[in-house]
TrEMBL record:
InterPro entries: FAD/NAD-bd_sf, Flavin_mOase, Flavin_mOase-like, Flavin_mOase_1, FMO-like. Its cofactor is FAD. Belongs to the FMO family. It is a single-pass membrane protein. Its EC number is 1.14.13.148, 1.14.13.8. The gene is Fmo1. This is Flavin-containing monooxygenase 1. One of its GO terms (molecular function) is NADP binding. Broad spectrum monooxygenase that catalyzes the oxygenation of a wide variety of nitrogen- and sulfur-containing compounds including xenobiotics. Catalyzes the S-oxygenation of hypotaurine to produce taurine, an organic osmolyte involved in cell volume regulation as well as a variety of cytoprotective and developmental processes. Pfam families: FMO-like (PF00743). Its main location: endoplasmic reticulum. It comes from Zapornia atra. GO terms for cellular component: endoplasmic reticulum membrane. Gene3D superfamilies: FAD/NAD(P)-binding domain (3.50.50.60). PANTHER family: DIMETHYLANILINE MONOOXYGENASE (PTHR23023).
Length: 519
């Protein structure tokens, strides 16, 4: 029996993977519905993620699908939150997940069972309608998410206590009418910050974004109008990025992101462009800067009664409303600190999943990662690996080996990303997925396929690394994987080709023809 904490994206796929492996999942969800982050509510609910109604996915549907359940072809390429929730409902219905979920049930505590050293069992206390119940489970999958505890570091902003205007965290934001005719300051250059600034600029008198370190800004519409991640996240591109020397690889990335517009001219150039930053996905920001709707300023030096002073800018700027887009903290209040200890927004987890010091590997954390790509396929791959570890079909390395890797990865992430906010949770999506897939025997072999199925091999290597690749073989093999890969561009272009007849669907077709001929 496996306890699954949370019925969001991670919890749903964890429940499904348990069923695939013949385990008995019981999923506890404190709210009355599935969806987690993607279920919009008009009011902010304590302990739950909160999003604004205009949120759209930053990754395309083909790159963020579960690996054995493609999106319907008529769904848009980038999904409004309501359509993504619809997909999750279809997923839950298709694989019969709802009957394994106990809604309105909060997990109060998860503690080691009395015979943990030999059985690995956990005692789990839950609460429903004020009544607490004790359960025993053979394993636990923590899928509680990391977008419900806002980080509001007011101590970093001198004078904020004297500021007479309004301020709030982005978690509280729902509609732009609160900014009508106001002078708005958005602090933070993440996706939410830019989204809110763009929406506010349509009704506000003035909008300013304050960023101390800048950001790379990408459009969802990339080369030749194709989705950014289907062009960026390919095996060929990943190979190039990882075999090139660090400075050359970073220079290539800098060149690519500056092709849309020169970030330095717009005041957006990252403070340390030698570090790889998580890109901000927004299609409107450059034009809004050009038209004066949004102004970019450096970090805040101090607040006054009704104004703000920026670093390197002596004059005060009058401000009415401040929106702090300063990210989130995460914690596991139902776990003892000795099980998963969080320090500086970092938990020492092997492969971002397993605590390194447990005598039995029967507790795993899913979704505590920020891949430079879709989160749904990543959490699914984590769940596929975890369930096989629970069954004893995959073994973890010795504790010393795991701890050494965790510490080295932390150092590498600091060097590569720079340690700020959630940087240590970021990782290269494709490399990470391949590593976990190799653990369970599901990593596709391009060379092997080149002999048996050259068309598929070339599509996998040169085309987007869609999740279906990890269902071609091994545990969880899906008969429809090959067809899903070969028709991925059909589903991508179907919702946009609404006026002209569909022609050749793959932008890689001519390239594949040439490479095939040469081979």
């Amino acid at each position: 029996r496996v306890a699954v904490v949370g019925a969001g994206v991670s919890g749903l796929t964890a429940t499904k993977c348990c069923l695939d492996e013949g385990l008995e999942p019981v999923c506890f969800e404190q709210s009355r519905d599935i969806g987690g982050l993607w279920r919009y509510t008009e009011h902010v609910e304590a302990g739950r993620p909160s999003l604004y109604p205009s949120v759209i996915s930053n990754t395309s549907k083909e790159m963020s699908a579960f690996s054995d359940f493609p999106y319907p072809e008529d769904f848009p390429v980038f999904l409004p939150n309501a359509r993504l929730l619809d997909y999750l409902r279809r997923y839950a219905e298709r694989f019969g997940l709802l009957k394994h979920i106990r809604f309105g049930t909060t997990v109060v505590s998860v503690r080691k069972g009395p015979e943990f050293a030999t059985t690995g069992q956990w005692s789990v206390v839950t609460e429903t309608d004020g009544k607490q119940t004790l359960h025993y489970f053979d394993a636990v999958m923590v899928c509680s998410g990391n977008f419900s505890e806002p980080s509001l570091p007011l101590h970093c902003f001198p004078g904020i206590e004297a500021f007479q205007g309004q301020y709030f965290h982005s978690r509280q934001y729902k509609h732009p009418d609160v900014f009508q005719g106001k002078r708005v300051l958005v602090i933070g250059m993440g996706n939410s910050g830019v989204d809110i600034a763009v929406e506010a600029s349509r009704v506000a008198a003035k909008v300013t974004i304050s960023t101390g370190r800048g950001a790379w800004v990408l459009s969802r519409v990339f080369d030749h109008g194709y989705p950014w991640d289907m062009v960026f996240n390919t095996r060929l591109m990943s190979l190039i990025r990882n075999i090139l020397p660090g400075p050359l690889s970073r220079g290539l990335i800098n060149y690519r992101v500056n092709q849309w517009f020169n970030h330095e001219n717009y005041g957006l150039q990252p403070e340390k462009s030698c570090l790889v930053r998580e890109p901000v996905l927004n299609d409107d920001l450059p034009s809004y800067i050009l038209t004066g709707r949004i102004t970019i300023k450096p970090g805040v030096k101090e607040f006054k009664d009704n104004s703000v002073v920026f670093h390197n800018c002596p004059e005060e700027e009058p401000i009415d409303i401040v929106v702090f887009c300063t990210g989130y903290n995460f914690s596991f209040p139902f776990l003892e600190e000795e099980v998963v200890k969080v320090e500086n927004k970092h938990a020492s987890l092997y492969k971002y999943v397993f605590p390194t010091h447990l005598q039995k590997p029967t507790l795993a954390v899913l979704g505590l990662i920020k891949p430079l790509g879709g989160i749904m396929p990543v959490t699914e791959m984590q769940a596929r690996w975890v369930t096989r570890v629970f069954k004893g079909l995959c073994q973890l390395p010795p504790q010393s080996v795991m701890e050494k890797e965790v510490n080295e990865k932390k150092k590498n992430q600091v060097q590569r990303f720079g340690l700020s906010f959630d940087e240590v949770l970021k990782t290269d999506c494709l490399v990470y997925m391949d590593k976990l897939a190799s653990f369970i025997g599901a990593k596709p072999s391009v060379l092997g396929l080149l002999c048996s199925d050259p068309r598929l091999a070339l599509t996998i290597f040169f085309g987007p690394c869609t999740p279906y690749q990890y269902r071609l073989g091994g545990p969880g093999h899906w008969e429809g994987a090959r067809q899903a890969i070969l028709t991925q561009w059909d589903r991508t272009l179907k919702p946009t080709r609404t006026r002209v007849p569909a022609g050749s669907s793959s932008p890689w077709l001519s390239l594949l023809t040439v490479v095939g001929f040469l081979l």
